[in-house]
Design brief:
This protein has helices at residues 6-14, 20-38, 46-61, 103-110, 153-160, 177-183, 217-227, 262-265, 270-285, 301-316, 335-346, 349-362, 368-391, 414-418, 425-429, 458-471; strands at 41-44, 72-76, 114-119, 166-170, 186-189, 210-214, 257-261, 289-293, 394-398, 434-442, 445-452. By secondary structure, the protein is an alpha/beta fold. It has 2 domains: 6-256 and 391-476, Amidase signature (AS) domain (Amidase signature (AS) enzymes, Alpha-Beta Complex), CATH 3.90.1300.10; 299-376, no CATH class. Strands 1-3-2-4-6-5-10-11-9-7-8 form an 11-stranded mixed beta sheet, sandwiched between helices. Strand 10 (434-442) and strand 11 (445-452) form a beta hairpin. The longest helix is centred in the C-terminal third of the chain and has 24 residues, at 368-391. The chain is globular and about 65 Å long. The chain starts with 5 loop residues before the first helix and ends in a 12-residue tail after the last helix. The structure holds glutamine. Glutamine binds at residues 125-128, 151, 171-175, 203, 309, 421.
Length: 483
């Protein structure tokens, strides 16, 4: 049951072969048995899940239907959930129970999806390995000594281990695509503005975007359908109709032009490159044409991102001051002491590093040299993508430079850690939609290929991904012990 797609589960629910409550109990049993070794879920919501499942069953008995009605999911703990702890992986919010739901959460709830719990994540979504969480690292179900990727590592690991039918995540610089690649699932990051950010705890507001973890591109289409769309509560959400993503799947790929991102193949591990080329051969068999495309400014995306994102985070995280909500230190002697110790004790090392970098690049005297320069390069990168999409429909490359690495291997070396994001950050800087798909194995660990499209090309990315998954079965592999 836990390896079935959302579509297959929905059929079983519609045919009354199973109830949502039974399905929910199946996943909850797996969660309590398998999660202790994985540390993927930090707040299981057992009673709430069973109540939501029973409600979904009642809705179905009353004649309602829908692709997500009664389907169990796990939310990244960055999404505010009414009445449920929303920690963002931080001691700062360890005691925070949100008084309201994020739009993503309320939309999926209205569609009838059942929340099983909240997943572990890098603290405030800052990280590439899920090792910066206050709640400890998440383990990769393919090898428990390896990281699952980050920052949405808990959602990715939970889905790969069959603890839910799908999961949510956020992607500021790769945090959906990178963990999806390292755990062998599909990770979809929509265009900036396609999905509401309301109630999603902010890291870098001009880059953050909510998206999905699913077993297939078809499932991603189903979930995105429910999540996407204009939200008056988010001023950056785009007022533009949401296409019928699922209905558009299955269009022939004949004539599709795929560009190989030349910069992504330079210095790439041969085995990784071979997997992408094998995937390209499949796309060609399906009728797509391929050519090389160069984005000359793309190699600057890591340094650009690591100026812009910390700058925005230093501003966003100033609200955590020990006064209104979240962690407060014991016995502050005055207001300054309250601020200093609450933030000093509430935030972990990586978050402090980002806040300090961000404050520095925004400070008078350094602003022009760092922040303004980074914004200019961001524009150049965006222009590079725009030019590329004049000649191709989408770009292809690897999602990550290597498969999952050992827990602890990079945690003391921030620069090496930041370089994991080299292939994912460009899409965030330019606000583009992108998807990571399982495409094979290196050292018995899953690897991902990435497709990046022009703004609002969610439908054609999903269609290309779906076409590839009709002729390959990498996305159907499950880690040993979790089948
Ligand atoms: N790894 C990147 C970072 O640490 C991206 C994180 C994200 O997408 N939330 O900032």
């Amino acid at each position: 049951m836990h390896t079935l797609s959302i579509g297959e589960l929905a059929q079983k629910l519609a045919a009354k072969q199973i109830s949502s409550l039974e399905l929910t109990d199946h996943f909850l049993e797996r969660l309590s048995r398998l999660n202790p070794a994985l540390n993927a879920v930090i707040t299981p919501t057992v009673d709430l899940a069973r109540a939501q499942a029973a409600a979904a069953d009642r809705r179905r008995s009353a004649g309602e239907s829908g692709p997500l009605l009664g389907i169990p999911l796990i939310h990244k703990d960055i999404f505010c959930t009414e009445g449920v702890r929303t920690s963002c992986g931080s001691r700062m919010l360890d005691n925070f129970v949100s008084p309201y739901d994020a739009t993503v959460v309320s939309r999926l709830r209205c569609a009838g999806a059942v929340m099983l719990g909240k997943s572990n994540m890098d603290e405030f979504a800052m990280g590439s390995s899920n090792e910066t969480s206050y709640y400890g690292p998440v383990k990769n179900p393919w090898d428990l000594t390896k990281v699952p990727g980050g920052s949405s590592g808990g959602s990715a690991a939970a889905l790969a281990a069959g603890l839910a039918a799908f999961a949510t995540g956020t992607d500021t610089g790769g945090s959906i695509r990178q963990p999806a690649a390292l755990t062998g699932v599909v990770g979809f990051k929509p265009t900036y503005g396609r999905v509401s950010r309301y109630g999603m705890i902010a890291f870098a507001s001009s880059l953050d975007q909510a998206g999905t973890f699913t077993r297939s591109a078809q499932d991603a289409a189903i979930v995105l359908q429910a999540m996407a769309g204009f939200d008056p509560k988010d001023s950056t959400s785009v007022d533009r109709p949401v296409p019928d993503y699922q209905g558009l799947l299955g269009a022939p790929l004949k004539g599709l032009k795929i560009g190989l991102l030349q910069e992504f193949f330079e210095g790439l591990d041969e085995r990784n490159g071979a997997l992408i080329h094998a995937a390209l051969a499949e796309f060609r068999k399906l009728g797509a044409t391929t050519c090389e495309v160069s984005l000359p400014n793309l190699p600057l995306s890591v340094p650009t991102y690591y100026v812009v994102a910390p700058a925005e985070c230093s501003s966003n995280l100033s609200r955590f001051d020990g006064v209104r909500f979240g962690y407060r230190c014991e016995d502050p002697k005055d207001l300054m002491d309250l601020y200093k110790r609450s933030r000093g004790e509430g935030f972990g090392a990586e978050v402090k590093r980002r806040i300090m970098t961000g404050t520095y690049v925004l400070s008078a005297g350094y602003y022009d040299a760092y922040y303004l320069k980074a914004q200019k390069i961001r524009q150049l990168i965006t222009d590079d993508f725009r030019r590329a999409f004049e000649s191709v429909d989408m770009l292809i490359g690897p999602t990550t430079p290597t498969p999952a690495f050992a827990i602890g291997a990079k945690v003391d070396d921030p620069i090496t850690m930041y370089l994991n994001d080299i292939y994912t950050i460009g899409a965030n800087l330019a606000g583009l939609p992108a998807v990571s798909l399982p495409c094979g194995f290196v050292d018995s660990l899953p690897m991902g290929l990435q497709l990046v499209g022009p703004h609002f090309a969610e439908d054609s990315l999903l269609n290309a991904a779906h076409g590839y998954q009709q002729v390959t079965d990498w996305h159907r592999r499950t880690p040993a012990g979790y089948a």
